[in-house]
Write a structure and sequence with these properties.
This protein is of the alpha/beta class. It has 14 helices and 13 strands. 49% of the residues are buried. Bound molecules: NADP nicotinamide-adenine-dinucleotide phosphate (NAP).
């Protein structure tokens, strides 16, 4: 029986992945024990439940992380707590390596990254990138910039290889939809646009339009399930340098989306105009939205020539598409912010200027 640790389990992605794992009725995840790493007592209480062992884990303490992994006999870590602070990954990889020495069995690390790092606006200079390309890792390394997400990806591939850990990188696209975790239920960008629009009583869109890759949270969680199921079925797919999987279900047309948000919010009396206005500058947008100035343009408008192939080879069949589902669910995005916006976002705390 395997032991799976989900970090960031009080978060939007981690919480939803944990719920998805806990609700498996067939397959090897059902027979596994789930462990959930969170930061506070309150989160331990919220996340604990049938089949879930919640652990309050201090990521500034290697000894504590190693003990948690060894005491709970963790074989697989699904890491969603940080895509940009590599010390967290380092501690988990070190701990998994210790676990491998004790058990003599393979250990696995699944990183949640950020897909905009592979878009031109995110500093990717090579044009089109497919997750099936054999040279992604070398290309990432060749960029030589200080992008914290890229630095973390490179670190994970190199360190896991050195330590004998099998690693995967799933760079998250723009994720939307109501999360199913027990703590934070809202994603990063669309809810932040809605909150800010409410405060300013105006919906603003970025000067440039874009069509970033996206996935509904339920489809993203399904991909984690497929990957972990393959691992547990002793059919672990290509890993380490070849372990990039791009979870792209469809694209989001930003200007059309912001216009729909404006009309949905206006219908509820939350903003003064049914049409979106254009931000006077990206700096102003970053400041009003509380997003890092350095990354706001990439977050807001990057499209990127990014192609997903490997998730589909694992059997991924996303249910949410652009036309029939996403654009029809914008009203729901507004409702979600009104109904379940109970936990302050912290995702950019590590890199805010
Ligand atoms: N959501 C998206 O659309 C999206 C898109 C691209 C990439 N990503 C990346 O995916 C990851 C997960 O995103 P998310 O939307 O699920 O974010 P989230 O809701 O903020 O979840 C992250 C969780 O990790 C915890 N955490 C953060 N720093 C930690 C630390 N130093 N030690 C222990 N726990 C820590 C947070 O704890 P608290 O709850 O106590 O703050 C939170 O529960 C992030 O790295 C994000 O950059 C997300």
């Amino acid at each position: 029986m395997a032991n799976i640790l989900v970090t960031g389990a009080a978060g939007y992605i981690g919480g939803s992945v944990l719920t998805e794992f806990a609700s498996q009725t067939t397959g090897p995840i059902k027979g596994s024990t789930l462990h959930a790493a969170v930061r506070t007592d309150e989160q331990v209480k919220a996340v604990s439940g049938p089949g879930v062992n919640a652990i309050q884990l201090d990521f500034s303490n290697q000894k504590a992380v190693t003990e948690a992994v060894l005491n709970n006999k963790i074989d697989i870590v699904v890491h969603t707590a940080s895509s940009m602070v590599h010390s967290l990954s380092e501690m988990l990889l070190n701990a998994l390596s210790e676990r491998r020495k004790v058990s003599g069995e393979a250990v696995y690390f699944i990183q949640t990254g950020v897909l905009t790092a592979f878009a031109d606006m995110g500093g990717w200079p090579y044009g089109q990138v497919k997750d099936s390309d054999q040279d992604i890792f070398e290309k990432e390394k060749g960029i030589g910039d200080q992008h914290p997400v890229r630095q973390t990806n490179i670190f994970i591939v190199e360190r896991s290889k050195a330590l004998g850990v099998t690693s995967y990188i799933l760079p998250a696209p723009s994720v939307y939809g109501r999360g199913t975790g027990q703590w934070r239920k809202l994603s990063v960008s669309i809810p932040q646009y809605i909150r800010t629009s409410m405060r300013l009583r105006t919906v603003y869109k970025f000067p440039d339009d874009g069509a970033p890759p996206a996935a509904h949270i339920s489809d993203l969680a399904t991909l984690y399930t497929l990957l972990v199921t393959s691992i547990l079925n002793h059919a672990a797919p290509p890993a380490n340098e070849d372990g990039y999987y791009f979870p792209i279900a469809h694209r989001i047309p930003w200007h059309a989306t912001m216009d729909l948000i404006a009309s949905a919010m206006h219908a509820r009396g939350l903003v003064d105009s049914p049409a979106a206005r254009v931000w006077p500058s990206y700096e102003r947008a970053a400041d009003e939205l509380g997003l890092p100035r350095l990354y706001v343009r990439a977050m807001g408008t990057s499209t990127g020539d990014i192609v997903a192939e490997k998730p589909f080879a694992l059997g991924w069949r996303p249910e949410w598409d652009e036309e029939a589902k996403f654009l029809g669910a914008i009203e729901q995005e507004v409702r979600d912010v009104l109904e379940v916006d109970t936990v302050k976002p912290t995702v950019f705390a590590a890199i805010m200027d």
